[in-house]
Amino acid sequence: MAAALKFVHDNARRFGGDPSRITAWGLSAGGSAVGQLALSPVSRDYIAGTIEMSGSAWASWALGPTVSNNSLILAWVVKLLQYM
C-alpha cells in the first residue's frame, strides 16, 4: 500500500493532480490501514489527509498482538522474497 501511495504521489501531476493534496480513504480495516499509512514514517509524506470510515489506526483490533506478530512475519517473508 505504501508503494502504491508513493506511485500516486510521484505521478499525480501526470494525471492533472496535485501531489501535495492526496487524500487516502478507507472503510473498516481499510480505515485503519489509511490511518496507519498516515502515521508511518515510510508513507506519511505522501498523504495530505485521510478519511477513515468505521475504522481507526487506534482500534483495539488494529493494534493487538496478533496484528503486530503478523506484520513482523509478513516483513520477514517480504525480505526473504527479495533474495529469490
UniProtKB/TrEMBL annotation:
InterPro entries hit by this protein: AB_hydrolase_fold, CarbesteraseB, Neuroligin/BSAL
Gene3D superfamilies: alpha/beta hydrolase (3.40.50.1820)
Domain of life, per lineage: Eukaryota
Start and end residues of each Carboxylesterase type B domain: 1-70
Pfam families named in the record: COesterase
Family named by the database record: Belongs to the type-B carboxylesterase/lipase family.
Protein name: Carboxylesterase type B domain-containing protein
Lineage, top ranks: Eukaryota, Metazoa, Ecdysozoa, Nematoda, Chromadorea
